[in-house]
Amino acid sequence: MDTATLPRLYLDDGSSGGRSAPGARPGTPKARRRIRSFSAFVTILLSLALAALLLWHRNLPSAGGLSMALESFLPWLGLLSAVLLIPAVRSRSILAWASWLVPVIAWCLIFVPGILPQPASAPASANSLVVATQNLQANRSVLGTGSSLLAQNADLIAVQELPSGRLPDNLDADYPYQAQGGSVALLSKFPILESQSLQLEGLSWVRALHATVQTPVGNISVYVVHAASVRPGEYAGRDAMLADLQQRMGQDPAERTLALGDFNAASTDRVLAGFQQGMTEHLASDGGFGFTWPAQFPATRPDHIFSKGMTVNHAAVLAPAGSDHRGLINTLSW
Protein backbone atom coordinates (compact mmCIF):
# COMPACT_ATOMS: atom_id res chain seq x y z
CA MET A 1 0.00 0.00 0.00
CA ASP A 2 1.26 3.49 -0.83
CA THR A 3 1.67 5.21 2.55
CA ALA A 4 1.35 8.54 0.86
CA THR A 5 -2.36 7.91 0.54
CA LEU A 6 -2.87 7.34 4.31
CA PRO A 7 -4.48 10.08 6.38
CA ARG A 8 -1.97 12.21 8.24
CA LEU A 9 -3.62 11.15 11.53
CA TYR A 10 -1.76 7.80 11.32
CA LEU A 11 1.58 9.24 10.21
CA ASP A 12 1.89 12.28 12.44
CA ASP A 13 4.00 11.26 15.46
CA GLY A 14 3.90 14.74 16.90
CA SER A 15 7.48 15.48 15.91
CA SER A 16 6.70 18.61 13.90
CA GLY A 17 8.15 20.99 16.41
CA GLY A 18 5.46 20.31 18.99
CA ARG A 19 2.85 22.18 16.92
CA SER A 20 -0.66 20.76 16.86
CA ALA A 21 -3.99 21.74 15.47
CA PRO A 22 -6.38 23.70 17.68
CA GLY A 23 -8.14 21.44 20.19
CA ALA A 24 -5.10 19.19 20.73
CA ARG A 25 -6.14 16.06 18.90
CA PRO A 26 -5.57 12.75 20.73
CA GLY A 27 -2.02 11.59 20.27
CA THR A 28 -0.47 15.04 20.13
CA PRO A 29 2.03 16.06 22.85
CA LYS A 30 -0.38 18.58 24.35
CA ALA A 31 -3.18 16.02 24.58
CA ARG A 32 -0.85 13.44 26.11
CA ARG A 33 0.29 15.93 28.75
CA ARG A 34 -3.33 16.68 29.62
CA ILE A 35 -4.15 12.98 29.93
CA ARG A 36 -1.13 12.39 32.16
CA SER A 37 -1.97 15.36 34.37
CA PHE A 38 -5.58 14.25 34.71
CA SER A 39 -4.50 10.66 35.43
CA ALA A 40 -2.11 11.86 38.12
CA PHE A 41 -4.83 14.01 39.70
CA VAL A 42 -7.32 11.11 39.74
CA THR A 43 -4.74 8.70 41.17
CA ILE A 44 -3.65 11.04 43.95
CA LEU A 45 -7.16 12.13 44.93
CA LEU A 46 -8.79 8.68 44.94
CA SER A 47 -5.80 6.90 46.48
CA LEU A 48 -5.65 9.26 49.45
CA ALA A 49 -9.44 9.06 49.85
CA LEU A 50 -9.25 5.24 49.82
CA ALA A 51 -6.46 5.24 52.41
CA ALA A 52 -8.52 7.54 54.64
CA LEU A 53 -11.51 5.18 54.40
CA LEU A 54 -9.38 2.19 55.35
CA LEU A 55 -7.64 3.87 58.28
CA TRP A 56 -10.48 5.93 59.75
CA HIS A 57 -13.67 4.13 58.71
CA ARG A 58 -14.80 3.86 62.33
CA ASN A 59 -14.83 7.65 62.58
CA LEU A 60 -17.28 8.09 59.71
CA PRO A 61 -20.83 9.15 60.59
CA SER A 62 -23.47 6.46 60.37
CA ALA A 63 -25.14 8.12 57.37
CA GLY A 64 -28.23 5.93 57.47
CA GLY A 65 -26.26 2.72 57.74
CA LEU A 66 -23.91 3.36 54.82
CA SER A 67 -20.90 3.18 57.14
CA MET A 68 -22.14 -0.20 58.38
CA ALA A 69 -22.34 -1.49 54.80
CA LEU A 70 -18.86 -0.11 54.12
CA GLU A 71 -17.40 -1.83 57.18
CA SER A 72 -19.12 -5.11 56.36
CA PHE A 73 -17.20 -5.38 53.10
CA LEU A 74 -14.14 -3.30 53.98
CA PRO A 75 -11.51 -5.83 52.82
CA TRP A 76 -12.94 -5.69 49.32
CA LEU A 77 -11.93 -2.03 49.04
CA GLY A 78 -8.46 -3.33 48.28
CA LEU A 79 -9.71 -4.14 44.78
CA LEU A 80 -10.05 -0.41 44.12
CA SER A 81 -6.26 -0.10 44.29
CA ALA A 82 -6.03 -2.49 41.35
CA VAL A 83 -8.41 -0.25 39.40
CA LEU A 84 -6.33 2.80 40.29
CA LEU A 85 -3.32 1.16 38.66
CA ILE A 86 -4.72 2.26 35.30
CA PRO A 87 -4.51 6.03 35.87
CA ALA A 88 -1.29 5.56 37.86
CA VAL A 89 0.40 3.95 34.86
CA ARG A 90 -1.01 6.57 32.48
CA SER A 91 0.22 9.42 34.67
CA ARG A 92 3.93 8.54 34.56
CA SER A 93 4.13 10.55 37.77
CA ILE A 94 6.28 9.63 40.77
CA LEU A 95 3.89 11.52 43.06
CA ALA A 96 0.93 9.58 41.66
CA TRP A 97 2.72 6.27 42.18
CA ALA A 98 3.64 7.24 45.74
CA SER A 99 0.01 8.16 46.41
CA TRP A 100 -1.15 4.85 44.95
CA LEU A 101 1.08 3.01 47.42
CA VAL A 102 -0.53 4.69 50.45
CA PRO A 103 -3.82 2.68 50.44
CA VAL A 104 -1.95 -0.47 49.45
CA ILE A 105 0.29 -0.16 52.51
CA ALA A 106 -2.69 0.77 54.70
CA TRP A 107 -4.62 -2.30 53.52
CA CYS A 108 -1.65 -4.55 54.22
CA LEU A 109 -1.13 -3.14 57.71
CA ILE A 110 -4.81 -3.61 58.59
CA PHE A 111 -5.50 -7.04 57.11
CA VAL A 112 -2.34 -9.01 56.35
CA PRO A 113 -1.40 -9.90 59.98
CA GLY A 114 -4.83 -11.47 60.50
CA ILE A 115 -5.07 -13.39 57.24
CA LEU A 116 -1.64 -15.00 57.15
CA PRO A 117 -1.62 -18.78 57.79
CA GLN A 118 -1.04 -19.61 61.44
CA PRO A 119 0.53 -23.01 62.07
CA ALA A 120 -1.53 -25.10 64.45
CA SER A 121 0.12 -25.33 67.85
CA ALA A 122 0.19 -28.48 69.95
CA PRO A 123 0.53 -27.38 73.56
CA ALA A 124 1.65 -29.86 76.15
CA SER A 125 -1.37 -29.00 78.26
CA ALA A 126 -4.26 -31.44 78.08
CA ASN A 127 -6.69 -28.62 78.83
CA SER A 128 -8.33 -28.36 75.42
CA LEU A 129 -11.81 -27.72 74.11
CA VAL A 130 -13.33 -27.82 70.62
CA VAL A 131 -16.17 -25.35 70.07
CA ALA A 132 -18.32 -24.60 67.03
CA THR A 133 -21.07 -22.20 66.06
CA GLN A 134 -23.61 -22.41 63.24
CA ASN A 135 -26.59 -20.35 62.12
CA LEU A 136 -29.06 -23.04 61.01
CA GLN A 137 -31.34 -20.80 58.91
CA ALA A 138 -34.19 -22.80 60.46
CA ASN A 139 -33.02 -25.86 58.51
CA ARG A 140 -33.51 -29.00 60.60
CA SER A 141 -31.20 -31.09 58.40
CA VAL A 142 -28.15 -29.10 59.57
CA LEU A 143 -28.56 -30.87 62.92
CA GLY A 144 -29.88 -34.10 61.44
CA THR A 145 -28.28 -37.51 61.78
CA GLY A 146 -25.06 -37.62 59.77
CA SER A 147 -24.83 -33.86 59.34
CA SER A 148 -21.43 -32.36 58.56
CA LEU A 149 -21.76 -30.08 61.59
CA LEU A 150 -22.21 -32.96 64.03
CA ALA A 151 -19.39 -34.83 62.28
CA GLN A 152 -16.96 -32.23 63.68
CA ASN A 153 -17.49 -33.87 67.10
CA ALA A 154 -17.08 -30.53 68.87
CA ASP A 155 -17.36 -30.44 72.66
CA LEU A 156 -19.66 -27.40 72.50
CA ILE A 157 -21.90 -26.33 69.63
CA ALA A 158 -23.77 -23.02 69.62
CA VAL A 159 -26.67 -22.84 67.19
CA GLN A 160 -28.89 -19.99 66.08
CA GLU A 161 -32.22 -19.85 64.23
CA LEU A 162 -33.53 -23.12 65.63
CA PRO A 163 -36.20 -24.67 63.39
CA SER A 164 -39.59 -24.51 65.11
CA GLY A 165 -37.80 -23.15 68.16
CA ARG A 166 -36.80 -26.58 69.47
CA LEU A 167 -33.86 -28.98 69.31
CA PRO A 168 -34.27 -32.30 67.47
CA ASP A 169 -34.28 -35.49 69.52
CA ASN A 170 -31.35 -37.16 67.74
CA LEU A 171 -28.84 -35.00 69.67
CA ASP A 172 -29.37 -36.50 73.11
CA ALA A 173 -26.82 -39.31 72.81
CA ASP A 174 -23.87 -37.20 71.68
CA TYR A 175 -24.89 -34.00 73.48
CA PRO A 176 -26.71 -34.98 76.67
CA TYR A 177 -26.43 -31.47 78.10
CA GLN A 178 -28.42 -28.77 76.36
CA ALA A 179 -29.53 -25.22 77.06
CA GLN A 180 -31.90 -23.09 75.04
CA GLY A 181 -32.79 -19.42 75.01
CA GLY A 182 -35.46 -18.54 72.45
CA SER A 183 -34.10 -19.36 69.00
CA VAL A 184 -30.51 -20.07 70.17
CA ALA A 185 -29.14 -23.12 71.96
CA LEU A 186 -25.96 -24.63 73.36
CA LEU A 187 -25.13 -28.33 72.95
CA SER A 188 -22.52 -29.71 75.33
CA LYS A 189 -20.75 -32.97 76.04
CA PHE A 190 -20.01 -31.65 79.52
CA PRO A 191 -22.45 -30.81 82.32
CA ILE A 192 -24.16 -27.42 82.15
CA LEU A 193 -24.24 -26.23 85.74
CA GLU A 194 -26.66 -23.40 85.09
CA SER A 195 -28.18 -21.59 82.15
CA GLN A 196 -30.48 -18.66 81.57
CA SER A 197 -32.07 -16.90 78.65
CA LEU A 198 -30.86 -13.36 78.13
CA GLN A 199 -33.37 -10.66 77.24
CA LEU A 200 -30.95 -8.21 75.68
CA GLU A 201 -31.87 -4.65 74.84
CA GLY A 202 -32.79 -3.97 71.25
CA LEU A 203 -35.23 -6.86 70.73
CA SER A 204 -38.49 -7.74 72.42
CA TRP A 205 -37.82 -11.49 72.18
CA VAL A 206 -35.00 -13.76 73.34
CA ARG A 207 -32.05 -14.48 71.04
CA ALA A 208 -29.25 -15.04 73.56
CA LEU A 209 -28.33 -17.23 76.51
CA HIS A 210 -25.66 -17.67 79.15
CA ALA A 211 -24.47 -20.99 80.53
CA THR A 212 -21.76 -22.22 82.85
CA VAL A 213 -20.18 -25.40 81.50
CA GLN A 214 -18.25 -27.75 83.78
CA THR A 215 -15.33 -29.21 81.84
CA PRO A 216 -12.94 -31.78 83.37
CA VAL A 217 -10.39 -29.04 83.95
CA GLY A 218 -12.53 -26.11 85.05
CA ASN A 219 -15.68 -24.12 84.41
CA ILE A 220 -16.25 -21.92 81.36
CA SER A 221 -18.75 -19.08 81.07
CA VAL A 222 -20.44 -19.33 77.67
CA TYR A 223 -22.57 -16.72 75.88
CA VAL A 224 -24.51 -17.62 72.73
CA VAL A 225 -26.03 -14.78 70.72
CA HIS A 226 -27.92 -14.12 67.53
CA ALA A 227 -27.90 -10.35 67.19
CA ALA A 228 -30.77 -8.48 65.57
CA SER A 229 -30.75 -8.41 61.79
CA VAL A 230 -29.44 -5.34 60.02
CA ARG A 231 -30.16 -3.49 56.81
CA PRO A 232 -29.51 0.09 55.68
CA GLY A 233 -31.13 2.40 58.19
CA GLU A 234 -32.06 -0.43 60.58
CA TYR A 235 -29.22 -1.46 62.83
CA ALA A 236 -30.02 0.17 66.19
CA GLY A 237 -31.43 -3.08 67.57
CA ARG A 238 -28.24 -4.97 66.81
CA ASP A 239 -26.06 -2.25 68.32
CA ALA A 240 -28.16 -2.19 71.49
CA MET A 241 -28.05 -5.99 71.84
CA LEU A 242 -24.30 -6.20 71.45
CA ALA A 243 -23.69 -3.27 73.79
CA ASP A 244 -25.88 -4.96 76.42
CA LEU A 245 -24.07 -8.27 75.94
CA GLN A 246 -20.67 -6.62 76.21
CA GLN A 247 -21.71 -4.91 79.46
CA ARG A 248 -22.93 -8.20 80.96
CA MET A 249 -19.73 -9.93 79.98
CA GLY A 250 -17.69 -7.13 81.48
CA GLN A 251 -19.33 -7.88 84.83
CA ASP A 252 -18.71 -11.63 84.55
CA PRO A 253 -15.94 -12.68 86.98
CA ALA A 254 -15.24 -15.98 85.18
CA GLU A 255 -11.61 -16.73 84.40
CA ARG A 256 -12.47 -18.32 81.05
CA THR A 257 -15.22 -16.91 78.81
CA LEU A 258 -16.63 -17.68 75.38
CA ALA A 259 -18.94 -15.55 73.24
CA LEU A 260 -20.04 -17.16 70.01
CA GLY A 261 -22.81 -16.98 67.47
CA ASP A 262 -24.16 -14.80 64.69
CA PHE A 263 -23.34 -11.21 65.66
CA ASN A 264 -24.65 -9.77 62.36
CA ALA A 265 -21.52 -7.62 62.36
CA ALA A 266 -18.35 -8.08 60.34
CA SER A 267 -14.94 -8.26 61.98
CA THR A 268 -14.28 -4.70 60.74
CA ASP A 269 -17.55 -3.31 62.14
CA ARG A 270 -17.05 -0.69 64.86
CA VAL A 271 -19.75 -2.32 67.02
CA LEU A 272 -17.35 -5.22 67.73
CA ALA A 273 -14.52 -3.03 68.97
CA GLY A 274 -15.29 -3.76 72.63
CA PHE A 275 -15.26 -7.53 72.10
CA GLN A 276 -12.02 -7.36 70.16
CA GLN A 277 -10.25 -5.35 72.86
CA GLY A 278 -10.97 -7.76 75.70
CA MET A 279 -11.13 -11.08 73.86
CA THR A 280 -9.31 -13.08 71.19
CA GLU A 281 -10.54 -14.16 67.78
CA HIS A 282 -8.63 -15.97 65.03
CA LEU A 283 -10.06 -15.83 61.52
CA ALA A 284 -8.67 -19.00 59.91
CA SER A 285 -5.48 -20.87 60.76
CA ASP A 286 -5.00 -21.85 57.10
CA GLY A 287 -5.08 -18.19 56.11
CA GLY A 288 -7.72 -15.93 54.65
CA PHE A 289 -10.49 -13.73 56.00
CA GLY A 290 -12.66 -16.52 57.37
CA PHE A 291 -15.78 -15.21 55.61
CA THR A 292 -18.97 -17.11 56.48
CA TRP A 293 -21.82 -15.43 54.55
CA PRO A 294 -23.34 -16.12 52.12
CA ALA A 295 -22.46 -19.80 52.30
CA GLN A 296 -21.95 -20.40 48.58
CA PHE A 297 -19.73 -17.37 48.02
CA PRO A 298 -18.71 -15.91 51.40
CA ALA A 299 -18.02 -12.19 51.23
CA THR A 300 -18.21 -11.10 54.87
CA ARG A 301 -17.99 -12.55 58.40
CA PRO A 302 -21.02 -11.98 60.67
CA ASP A 303 -20.28 -15.14 62.72
CA HIS A 304 -17.67 -15.12 65.46
CA ILE A 305 -16.00 -17.06 68.26
CA PHE A 306 -14.49 -14.76 70.90
CA SER A 307 -12.57 -16.23 73.82
CA LYS A 308 -10.93 -14.95 76.98
CA GLY A 309 -8.49 -16.83 79.23
CA MET A 310 -7.79 -19.42 76.52
CA THR A 311 -5.42 -19.85 73.58
CA VAL A 312 -6.73 -20.45 70.08
CA ASN A 313 -4.73 -23.38 68.72
CA HIS A 314 -6.68 -23.77 65.51
CA ALA A 315 -9.53 -21.91 63.79
CA ALA A 316 -11.42 -22.86 60.66
CA VAL A 317 -14.53 -22.13 58.61
CA LEU A 318 -16.74 -25.15 58.00
CA ALA A 319 -18.02 -26.26 54.62
CA PRO A 320 -21.62 -25.38 53.70
CA ALA A 321 -24.06 -27.52 55.69
CA GLY A 322 -27.44 -26.52 54.30
CA SER A 323 -27.66 -23.02 55.76
CA ASP A 324 -27.00 -19.60 54.25
CA HIS A 325 -24.16 -19.26 56.79
CA ARG A 326 -21.01 -21.33 57.11
CA GLY A 327 -20.11 -22.48 60.59
CA LEU A 328 -16.95 -21.83 62.59
CA ILE A 329 -14.87 -24.20 64.71
CA ASN A 330 -12.04 -23.45 67.17
CA THR A 331 -9.71 -25.63 69.18
CA LEU A 332 -8.88 -23.88 72.45
CA SER A 333 -6.50 -24.65 75.27
CA TRP A 334 -5.46 -23.19 78.63
From TrEMBL:
Residue ranges for the region (Disordered) are 11-31
Domain called Endonuclease/exonuclease/phosphatase: residue spans:
144-325
Please note every region of biased composition (Low complexity). 18-27
Which residue spans adopt a coiled-coil conformation according to this UniProt entry? Answer: none
Q: Which UniProt keywords are given for this protein, alphabetically ordered?
A: Membrane, Transmembrane, Transmembrane helix
Which residue ranges run through the membrane? 38-56, 68-87, 94-116
Q: Does the keyword Transmembrane helix apply?
A: yes
One Pfam match: Exo_endo_phos
Q: What is this protein called?
A: Vancomycin resistance protein VanJ
